[in-house]
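Human:
Focus on the backbone:
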Amino acid sequence: MLKKLFKKKENKIKQVILSAPVKGKFLPLEEVPDPVFSEKMMGDGVAIDPEEGKIVAPADGEVVQIFPTKHAVALKIANGAEILIHIGLETVNLKGEGFTAHVKEGQKVKMGELLVTFDIDQVKEKAKSMITPMIVTNGEDMQSVERLVKEKETQVLAGMTDVLEVYGK
């Protein structure tokens, strides 16, 4: 009986707003020239055609994975959503060339904190595309993933423009 009285309440955050992870032009995920992203095989999200080589945390969370090639970073945010930021398309083939990670796995990050920098000219020259998808990879565990930016080519600012709203269950 006393256990119920003093039981700690779980105060889980349900709604999280994700900001743009990079400055650039917004694109609907369906227009990404790669079926893995455009057909939402990995999950729902948004894409941005970057104008600078700085990727920031779209929300407070924890770095779950930095890929060895530093072309992608995975975060877990407060409501349990798992977010993948994939810098460019087919950039894994660059084997880390032009990318610098500024965080490590297990590190807690705040929205707007620098995660990865990349040489935009070098990557643009060698990658299939610079388009950078941000995906909620465990959408089936979420109540909803809603796109906040509706118009293609809308200018978004890293860490400032809200692009996705994710509701946990």
About this structure: The mean pLDDT is 92. The longest helix spans residues 120-126.
